[in-house]
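Predict both folds.
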Amino acid sequence: MRLILEEEGLKNYWTIFRLKIHLHSLVRERDQGLLHLGTKVFQLHQSQCFERDDLKENFQEIASIEDEIDQVHEILYQELGGSPRKPCPSCGKYVDSQARFCPSCGSSLEGSKPE
């Protein structure tokens, strides 16, 4: 009788374990879908194809964080011995001081001076 109860408990344990793994997988899949959707909406907003007043604050907050990420990347780049770069006057992304075009937005850098 004890062996049957132990086997029953073990079956229950594995069933719960499989269900938890499946649930975790579904939650991760949902979160990835939301992340991709949010990325697409943010890109549409940046290209000015999508304007919603109720989301502007969120977009500005994310853009501010992205600017700070770019600045920290540039500081790290220079700390690791990289040559100084300049921000693109159009999009603000850092580019090589000798670059003629911004690799991020494609703007011409011919008229800008290296910093």
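Second protein follows, with its predicted structure tokens after the sequence.
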Amino acid sequence: MIDSAKVLTSERGCSRIKSIYMFLQKIALQNFRNYTLSVFDLEPGVNLLVGPNAIGKTSVVEAIHLLSTGESFRANKIGEMVRFDQELARIKAKSDDDETLEILLNHGVVVGKRTKKRHFILNGAKKRKKDFVGLFYSVVFRPEDMRLIEGSKSRRRKFMDESLSILDWRYARSLKMYEEALLKRNKLLWQIKEGFVPETTLKYWNLTIVKHGTYLQEKRQSFLDFFARVEFPLDFAVEYQPSIISNERIDQYQPKAIMVGRSLIGPHKDDFIVKLANGGKKTNASFDVAIYGSRGQQRMAVLWLKTCQLQYLEEKSEQKVLLLLDDILSELDSAMKEKVLTLLEGRQSIITSADDGAIVEIKKHLKKINLIDLD
């Protein structure tokens, strides 16, 4: 068996990738999901992965997104990505700049020894996650994203957090610190309610969630403000609905929070709504797409959000973003497909599809495609 550690090699020193034209040339998967060992050659333009359902197309997209963000968009636990009955999985990619990016995944024990479940490696040197994430940027568009508009608030908060975390390490740290402090505060609120500890035990945790929560909400507002600058066929707008956190509001809501045993305000309650100008034209009247929009308008709104996300990442990072379209074209009508295909221009993209009709349509619109048949 070929050792995937030797499939992709680099002799260059350790340095961050900065070229706005950087693209992935190869990606190797070893014991990742259903793959034993597979190597894929990628082109700088459109790469179309075709094959029947359950063959592993989404796993390739997941691996690339993992190299970009450090996180999986579908695994609840790191060990879920390791092939059944194996200890270790490896994802390894080589860029046109001859940089080698690698992530090792395991269940927490390798050869009988406890270890971190995830290791990040750049050109053979181990890196902290924050020094690895953002070597290149990606936006993934999946059928599940179609519920972004009318789905749960948590989906929309995750949408904001993903882009901000990869660009801003301070944001990622504040998000982690806020979530940890929130869990501790909620536990104390319940203990105070039951009479086990005094209310004064909340003081430190109140200060912590206000400090980090304020930063999160400032960055979320700035992120959504950017969307007004994005051109799109329909006149969408986004309205941030923060659950404002401050020392004053913490004090105001604390008696009720103790009564119910959980925190009632803060970024964990944030949401946003997408509005469309009445009739799709620039007028003073607009409506909430989640409530009053047609199914087609809701889907166009999701596409608008993804377009905004992509343009935000490109402007802030000054890099071209890799676009990942995972079996999404079969979900779209002709107008949306045409808009999506225009997003492919000037950047590397990975498209997966099991739909023969969608594949034929892609080939009609795009002159040059790197076809990868997984069947």
